[in-house]
Amino acid sequence: MPAMRMRFKTSLNLPLAGEVLALLALAGALLGGSILQAGNIQERARRFTRPVEFDFTAWTLRTLWGKWEMLSVGGARFLPPRERVAVVETYFAAVQESQQAERDLQEVLADPRETAGEAHLSELRAHFQAAAARKEVLTPWAEAVLESQVSAILFRNGLTFGGEPIPPVSFHLTSPPRALIVSPREVIRQDADISLQPNLAPEAIQNLEAEVERSLNVSALVERTGGIGVYPTMVLESADLNWVCEVIAHEWTHNYLDWHPLGLRYNASPEMRTINETTATISGQENGALVVQTYYPERVPSPPASPPPASGGEQNAPPPFDFQREMHHTRVVVDRLLAEGQVERAEWYMEVRRRYFWEHGYHLRKLNQAYFAFHGAYAAAPEGAAGEDPVGEAVRLMRKESPSVGVFVRRMAWVTSWPRLQRMAGAEGNADGR
Questions:
Q1: Closest Cα to residue 76, out of 131, 164, 24, 138?
Q2: What is the DSSP letter of 35?
Q3: Residue 383 pLDDT grade (very low, low, confident, very high; cuts 50, 70, 90)
Q4: At 223, which helix (H) or strand (E)?
Q5: What angle do CA 326, 327, 331 make, to 5 degrees?
Q6: Rounded Cα distance, 300 and 291, in Å
Q7: CA 20 to 30 Å from 379, out of 51, 80, 100, 210?
Q8: Which residues have CB under 8 Å from 340's CB, separation 6+?
Q9: What is the rounded distance in angstroms from the CA atom of residue 94 to the CA atom of residue 97?
């Protein structure tokens, strides 16, 4: 969704200049494959987005320069394991401090009742600036340590060649671009995905969506992203170590698949996009969780508490609100209405449901066809925005029938089409008598 010196972990035993050339080659190849091929709707929508589109080339060059600085000095690979863990823990504490300092400053500036003097404001600004500076110093160290730790987990799960991941794990903690998603109104389908600058004002986002929808008669949504599978990959800066490790592994999986049939055919059909994203999600969840379990066991999330048994007057109480289940139900109804040609009724229903989600604490800015086109491709869980799409179920079956997440990813990498996955999943299921 992100100046210290450290050696960048690479799988190539090359001189320094050779390592940098290899990084540049990988970045160029993966960057070229990461951007959606422009179709008719994509190009028509870009008439409205060109002034605010994200510059991948400039970002990649800046990031590679930072990696070059780390390569030229070295450092992280010589740290003892305990110190590596301490570097990452210190970084996440700095992120949390920086974010809290920013919230404190914004709250004082935005509160109309606040009467803080200039001295207090100066103190808050100084605290925020100092916290942000500490975070920036620690960022490349934390990146290098996490790159080596994720690499070790990938090796454990058999996702390496010659003992090293291909491509090497490389990411940058940053603010990834926003995505403008465009879907037809008559059917849920992603026809465009355009990367925009991450810091667009809320009014600019609303105006852009309205202009695209009005001019092209489509459904549009500008959404935040948690990561982008360019090279080095982008990972949204966060104080949540579990989430960051998951996204690092998720985006590396895209890099890995880009060199295999599944990744090369990412844009071949909506089904192939869902297969790609669901495969990367499952891989990210499992490999990321194993990183935390191995190196940061005290940060492993506690299992959710079981609800107490109902008794007395609680027996007739409604079940707790389940976002995934409710979103699944919403998608199923919307798909049915659109299949019947009731576009306006489907859009009315989505707005009603959006307000329902809002009342239960899920503040969705928009809920429309573009929302489902974007979020429905991430079908690692049985319920959610994918509705009754069978693609996610087939991918989940492949994981269930694979002895490890590494075997699962290697199998999925060779999927060339949705019918091919159906045959593979059918064969796996039949092997157990289903």
A1: 138
A2: S
A3: confident
A4: strand 218-223
A5: 120
A6: 10
A7: 210
A8: none
A9: 5
